[in-house]
Amino acid sequence: MDRAQKEQVVEELGQIFESSGVVVVAHYAGLTVAQMQDLRGRLRAVGGSVRVAKNKLAKIALEGKPASAMGDLLTGMTVFAYSDDPVAAAKVAEDYAKTTEKFVILGGAMGEMILDPAGVKAVAALPSREELIASIVGCIGAPASNIAGAIGAPASNIAGILSTLEEREAA
Question: What is the spatial distance between Cα 83 and Cα 20, in angstroms, rounded to a whole number?
Answer without folding.
Answer: 6
